[in-house]
């Protein structure tokens, strides 16, 4: 058995999701390679080279591959796979990058992908959440190659103390697609990334407007926390969309998740259930969020937040 | 232009689901069913494009048991023109095969765009749109939060990606999958619900399509997720901080 991990990166640095995916791959078999596809990848390659658990890294570095257009990535990955038929497993992080890309690889090989695995049972059996995590399905693939996307928060990132062998791959005759890249509006923040943060503080509709999120900022600063939000807060335009935590937003698993003015709808809970501790502040003692919280404080957030910030 | 919209009948998103005691799946008997919320957004987007004069016909497709006709009717009441049901015995079908079935209808109808939800909230697979565009060898734009059709019929799609928003330009025929913020689906008015009853739904039997729908991924068992252990209500900020510091050791 041999696994291939598709690397998620921005040409400069590697996304932590990749390191978690390598861990999942290592639980399936001992022999794990990685494939990175992009343009001007020197810095990214220097980083992925350190990943423990990899046998070899293949690099496809080519003009026109600087943006993650799924059509381009998939044709190059498929051309690479054609030159090697030893892989029994192909794993990609279950981020928007992987979700967009991996099914294309699977389809061209006429294989049914397994999405969003949270546990490796054995080399062909995996667990994955269904119904927003309200049930867990154990599934077995009968396909000759297992194509998987991996929920990063369910696998610890691999260590970074190695110096893995790197091989450049030159693929002739793989055309670029006519999809054109128009713009990338990156939301910039000095705070930790939601999906890898140790502490997260999120606000919901109870925050009333975007300005009031300042009440959370001071606390986030003191805790070194990432900031998140419920869908209601995002939909109302209080904060950017990539702050959304939940079934259809980001799945997070910090040591501490603080929910402020969030009722605790199942779709929100789906994204936070794997947190080690959940604390919540809500003025409604009946709010469902309390059922999922280790610590609940029934109070008006506008009174409590300034006090909390001061006392931390 | 012609649009094909795919709608799946799923357990309503407000229902608290129950795992069957024999662990074979999730209880669907006597449970409220609705259109997958992302597919409502897909129908709404098609109807909006029709109102703008960009699209002139909307076909609403569902693959499922006889009862999926109701879901198609909901789409027709929202503004779809006609429906297609590919009738199954209600068995689960792997997304790859769903993609092949949609392709079969695509080949018959030759739409310019297919709009699907990004994810069905029952299987949470998030694959079918990507599968379909690969089968059709056409452009895909997943997780759309904005769709703008240009005069030359190219389409600018803004996509919700992890780090922000990405915009790509694709050409027809294409596959678009919807994210939550693309639009707010309308409620069908009573007159439109009545009118939808007259609209045509073609019914095809899945066995006549010559697609092997044998499952390639078997479900071994379905179980309840581990429960979180019950927590406590604290009285004030001081005790909250104390617990977080000294009991949980997380700050
Ligand atoms: C298909 C689908 C997918 C979805 N995906 C997601 C998702 O990924 N993430 C997500 O979050 N939601 C998602 N939702 C939406 C979800 O169902 C809820 O509507 C949403 O989570 C509610 O957000 P909220 O808790 O902020 O708002 P509300 O439910 O309105 O709750 C606001 C809370 O604030 C409290 N509050 C108000 N004022 C104060 C105050 N002064 N002090 C203290 N507390 C106060 C109230 O008591 C209330 O509990 C999805 C829905 C669907 C249909
Ligand atoms: N049985 C079905 N009938 C119609 N559309 C479907 C069906 N299954 C999936 N789809 C479409 O594919 C999307 C993604 O589904 P999935 O890949 O299963 O998460 C859904 O939102 C629907 O638009």
Descriptive report:
- The complex is a heterodimer of chains A (312) and B (251).
- Chain A folds into two domains: 3-168, HUPs (Rossmann fold, 3-Layer(aba) Sandwich), CATH 3.40.50; 199-311, TPP-binding domain (Rossmann fold).
- Helices cover 26% and strands 27% of the residues of chain A.
- Chain A is built from eight helices and 16 strands.
- Chain A has helices spanning 16-28, 42-48, 70-83, 96-108, 214-223, 231-235, 266-272, 301-311, and strands at residues 3-6, 32-38, 56-61, 89-93, 114-117, 119-122, 125-130, 135-141, 146-150, 165-168, 180-186, 199-203, 226-229, 256-260, 277-282, 295-298.
- In chain A, the strands form three sheets. A seven-stranded parallel β-sheet of chain A has the order 5-9-4-1-2-3-10, sandwiched between helices. Chain A has a five-stranded parallel β-sheet with strand order 13-12-14-15-16. In chain A, strands 6-7-8 form a three-stranded antiparallel β-sheet.
- Chain B has six helices and 13 strands.
- The N and C termini of chain B lie far apart (57 Å).
- Chain B has 251 residues and is of the alpha/beta class.
- The mean pLDDT of chain B is 97.
- In chain B, β7 (139-149) and β8 form a beta hairpin.
- The longest helix of chain B is centred in the first third of the chain and has 15 residues, at 37-51.
- Chain B has a single domain (2-247), classed as Rossmann fold.
- In chain B, α2 (68-78) crosses α5 (190-196) and α3 crosses α4.
- Classes of the chains: A alpha/beta (312), B alpha/beta (251).
- Chains A and B meet through α3, α4, β5, β7 and β8 of A and α3, α4, β7, β8 and β9 of B.
- β8 (135-141) of chain A pairs antiparallel with β12 (217-223) of chain B.
- The complex binds flavin-adenine dinucleotide and adenosine monophosphate (AMP).
- Adenosine monophosphate binds at residues 6-8, 36, 38-39, 42, 61-64, 95, 98, 116-117, 119-120, 123, 125-128 of chain B.
């Amino acid at each position: 058995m041999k696994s291939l991990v598709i690397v998620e990166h921005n040409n400069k640095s590697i996304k932590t999701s990749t390191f978690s995916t390598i861990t999942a791959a290592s639980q399936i078999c001992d022999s794990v390679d990685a494939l990175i596809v992009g343009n001007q990848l020197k810095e990214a390659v220097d980083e992925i080279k350190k990943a423990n658990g990899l046998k070899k890294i293949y690099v496809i570095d080519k003009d026109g591959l600087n943006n993650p257009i799924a059509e381009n990535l998939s044709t190059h990955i498929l051309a690479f796979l054609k030159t090697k038929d030893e892989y029994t497993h192909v794993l990609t992080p279950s981020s928007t990058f992987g979700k967009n890309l991996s099914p294309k690889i699977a389809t061209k090989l006429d294989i049914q992908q397994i999405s969003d695995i949270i546990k490796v049972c054995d080399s062909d059996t995996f667990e994955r959440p269904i119904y927003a995590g309200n049930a867990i399905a154990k599934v077995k693939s009968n396909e000759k190659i297992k194509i998987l996307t991996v929920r990063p928060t369910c696998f610890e990132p691999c260590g970074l103390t190695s110096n893995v062998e790197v091989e450049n791959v030159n693929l002739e005759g793989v055309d670029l697609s006519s999809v054109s890249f128009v713009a990338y509006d990156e939301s910039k923040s000095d705070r930790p990334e939601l999906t890898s943060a140790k502490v997260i503080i999120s606000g919901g509709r109870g925050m009333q407007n975007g300005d009031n999120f300042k009440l959370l900022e001071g606390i986030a600063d003191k805790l070194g926390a990432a900031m998140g939000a419920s869908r209601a807060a995002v939909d109302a335009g209080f904060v950017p969309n990539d702050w959304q935590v939940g079934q259809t937003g980001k799945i997070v698993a910090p040591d501490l998740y603080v929910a402020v003015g969030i009722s605790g709808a199942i779709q929100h809970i789906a994204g936070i259930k794997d947190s080690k501790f959940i604390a919540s502040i809500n003025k409604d003692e009946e709010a469902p969020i309390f059922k999922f919280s280790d610590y609940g404080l029934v109070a008006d957030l506008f009174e409590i937040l300034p006090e909390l910030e001061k006392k931390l | 232009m012609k649009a094909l919209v795919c709608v799946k009948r799923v357990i309503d998103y407000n229902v608290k689901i129950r795992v069957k005691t024999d662990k074979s799946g999730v209880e669907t008997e006597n449970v409220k069913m609705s259109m997958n919320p992302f597919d409502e957004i897909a129908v709404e987007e098609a109807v909006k494009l029709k109102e703008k004069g960009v699209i002139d016909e909307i076909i609403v497709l569902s693959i499922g048991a006889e009862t999926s006709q109701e879901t198609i009717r909901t789409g027709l009441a929202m503004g779809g023109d006609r429906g297609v049901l590919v009738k199954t015995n209600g068995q689960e079908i792997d997304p790859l095969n769903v993609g092949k079935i949609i392709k079969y209808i695509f080949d018959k109808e030759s739409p310019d765009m297919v709009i699907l939800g990004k994810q069905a909230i029952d299987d949470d697979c998030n694959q079918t749109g990507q599968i379909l565009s690969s089968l059709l060898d056409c452009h895909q734009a997943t997780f759309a939060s904005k769709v703008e059709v240009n005069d030359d019929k190219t389409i600018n799609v803004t996509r919700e990606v992890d780090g922000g928003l990405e915009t790509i330009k694709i050409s027809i025929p294409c596959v678009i999958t919807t994210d939550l913020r693309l639009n707010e689906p309308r409620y069908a008015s009573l007159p439109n619900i009545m009118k939808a009853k007259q609209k045509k739904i073609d019914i095809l039997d899945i066995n006549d399509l010559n697609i092997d729908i044998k499952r390639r991924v078997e479900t071994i068992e379905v179980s309840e997720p581990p429960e979180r252990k019950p927590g406590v209500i604290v009285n004030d900020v001081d005790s909250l901080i104390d617990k977080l510091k000294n009991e949980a050791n997380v700050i």
